[in-house]
Amino acid sequence: MLGWALTFLVIAILAAIFGFGGIAGTAAxxxxxxxxxxxxxxxxxxxxxxxxxxxPSI
Length: 58
Description:
This protein has 58 residues and is an all-alpha fold. It contains two helices and no strands. Helix 1 (2-17) runs antiparallel to helix 2 (21-52).
């Protein structure tokens, strides 16, 4: 999921360089949403592993 966020971030940067403002804004928004979903799922996973008594599986 983090890979998808980075992909959309690269797309946004390239679109901004070439002057496609609308596409750049949309891609940046998608990247931001995917990144925050990733962070939330990471926190939930770490809490669930702590409750089960296991250490983090990183």
